[in-house]
């Protein structure tokens, strides 16, 4: 059963500027595991992960509130993005009966987008 859906689109340039202007942005938004995965990748990948986190927060029905950005992790298994919830994001999903969140991430030259489906 689908419990929630979320979609997000972001300008890749906005993420680039945030990374360049705010040294703490990376640690605020991305987990250590994500930063390790993103090391050496292009800015589109950072924007895609950001967009995925926004989409997941919408699928949870909360937006990014009552938990940290790093409570939503995007990991890759055989190049397929997967969602790992931690801390309060995990608690919210459990309270809502969400068992799995499916994610699709894409980008063009200027935008990154993501679509999330919360299943219970």
Short description:
The chain is an alpha+beta fold and about 120 residues long. It has helices at about 10-20, 25-30, 30-40, 45-60, 85-95; strands at about 1-10, 70-75, 80-85, 100-105, 110-120.
Q: What do these coordinates show?
A:
The protein has 5 helices and 5 strands, in the order βααααββαββ. The chain is globular, with a radius of gyration of 13 Å. The strands form 2 sheets. The protein has a 3-stranded antiparallel beta sheet with strand order 1-5-4. It has a two-stranded antiparallel sheet with strand order 2-3. The model has no long low-confidence stretch (mean pLDDT about 95). It is an alpha+beta fold and about 120 residues long. The protein has a single domain, classed as 4'-phosphopantetheinyl transferase domain (Ribosomal Protein L22, Chain A, Alpha-Beta Complex), CATH 3.90.470.20. About 40% of the residues lie in helices and about 30% in strands. Strand 4 and strand 5 form a beta hairpin. The chain starts with a strand and ends with a strand.
List keywords for this structure.
about 120 residues, Ribosomal Protein L22, Chain A, 3-stranded antiparallel sheet, two-stranded antiparallel sheet, 5 helices, 5 strands
User: What kind of assembly state do the chains in view correspond to?
Assistant: single chain
Looking at the overall shape, the CATH architecture is Alpha-Beta Complex
Helix/strand/pairing category: alpha+beta
Q: How far is the N terminus from the C terminus? A: 5 Å
Number of helical runs? 5
What is the count of β-strands?
5
Q: Kindly report the CATH topology.
A: Ribosomal Protein L22, Chain A
CATH superfamily grouping? 4'-phosphopantetheinyl transferase domain
Physical arrangement of strands within the biggest beta sheet = 1-5-4
Question: Strand content of the residues, in percent?
Answer: 25-35%
Mean pLDDT: 96
Biggest sheet statistics: 3 strands, antiparallel
């Amino acid at each position: 059963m689908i419990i929630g859906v979320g979609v997000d689109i972001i300008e890749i340039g906005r993420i680039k500027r945030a990374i360049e202007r705010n040294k703490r942005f990376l640690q605020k938004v991305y987990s250590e595991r994500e930063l390790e995965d993103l090391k050496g990748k292009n800015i589109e990948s950072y924007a895609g992960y950001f967009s995925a986190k926004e989409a997941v927060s919408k699928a949870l029905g909360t937006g990014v509130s009552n938990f940290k950005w790093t409570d939503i992790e995007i990991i890759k298994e055989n190049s397929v993005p997967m969602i790992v919830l931690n801390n309060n994001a995990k608690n919210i999903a459990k309270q809502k009966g969400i068992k799995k969140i499916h994610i699709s991430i894409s980008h063009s030259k200027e935008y990154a987008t993501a679509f999330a489906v919360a299943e219970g």
